């Protein structure tokens, strides 16, 4: 693989995929709805013709789709996670020599699972919220490519953490609040921290994306990307407070019911399949992820 069309290049995961790909000597065509200078303007939801033109013009060896909508109205979620993917799938099926597609799915597609049992790709998806429902619809659209000459894989990413984590994530929001209130007596308030999540460093996610894009042969339709560990969210908060050296208290507030994973008490990825198929495994411990996230807030906050 010498050239990749990276859609969603300005997002949290997309930025790290771009950095890892460039470091590996891969030419990256960075595309986004609001691209950075020199990037390609591409809105998947605008229609398949625009996507097909971008594929034809850039002639990539692989397409990585990191684009998506994590929150918003039902119409916005459907547009960003379903219509956009449908347009990408349509464009690929019309391409003469379609490149491999690596599409980022979400652990929210699984929904609530049995506590203590790592969730494998064979588990029936039962998303609880509209975000998970729309992400699952996107995954199913990509899976239809199995009946065409297009080679495609969905990477179901669990909870990415690390530098650049947005405020829409617990770690990103907590780090930003600790940075904002540093040196004060102001308490930091977050939602309930009773759940356990599989937290995986965003740079490890980027490495998994590159491994999937570069794999020499067909790969399974869906592969989990996670740490393979379930971390209590209270431990995440305590670890971040330790990393920052903050003396502030982190107080839990009642649930607002709006979180994308609301209602999911426990998740841990079974990552044996991606290890067998791609030789990938997570390499970054949570403390390092949080330390680098904290350092990043000094630059962006």
From TrEMBL:
**What is the name of the protein in this document?**
NAD(P)-dependent oxidoreductase
**Domain named NAD-dependent epimerase/dehydratase: which ranges?**
4-226
A Pfam entry, by short name = Epimerase
Which domain of life, per UniProt? Bacteria
What Gene3D superfamilies does the annotation carry?
NAD(P)-binding Rossmann-like Domain, UDP-galactose 4-epimerase, domain 1
The UniProt entry, under InterPro entries, shows: Epimerase_deHydtase, Lipid_A_modif_metabolic_enz, NAD(P)-bd_dom_sf
